[in-house]
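Tokens as discussed.
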């Protein structure tokens, strides 16, 4: 990608996809002001849940099949409020 064609801002999803370091399994947004994305890193997975109306991202490392199903079609607040979800405090 030419330097002038690069976006000025990235989401984590778009940056990781461009770098090719992970495989995005799926992502979706809901009317309940949440977005979810599931990434695959070799033999590990990372599930991210973001509040789209204000800052805040929770992560679940190596989500269970049940958590993956909730991410695909369930109530995302269940993931946000999960005891396994951890707040992502920053990128550095």
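Sequence:
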């Amino acid at each position: 990608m030419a330097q002038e064609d690069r976006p000025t801002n990235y989401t984590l999803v778009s940056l990781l996809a461009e770098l090719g370091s992970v495989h995005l399994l799926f992502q979706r947004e809901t009317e309940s002001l949440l977005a979810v994305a599931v990434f695959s890193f070799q033999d590990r997975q990372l599930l991210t849940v973001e509040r789209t109306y204000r800052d805040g991202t929770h992560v679940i490392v190596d989500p269970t099949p049940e958590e993956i199903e909730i991410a695909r079609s369930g109530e995302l607040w269940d993931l946000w409020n999960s005891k396994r979800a951890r707040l992502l405090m920053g990128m550095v």
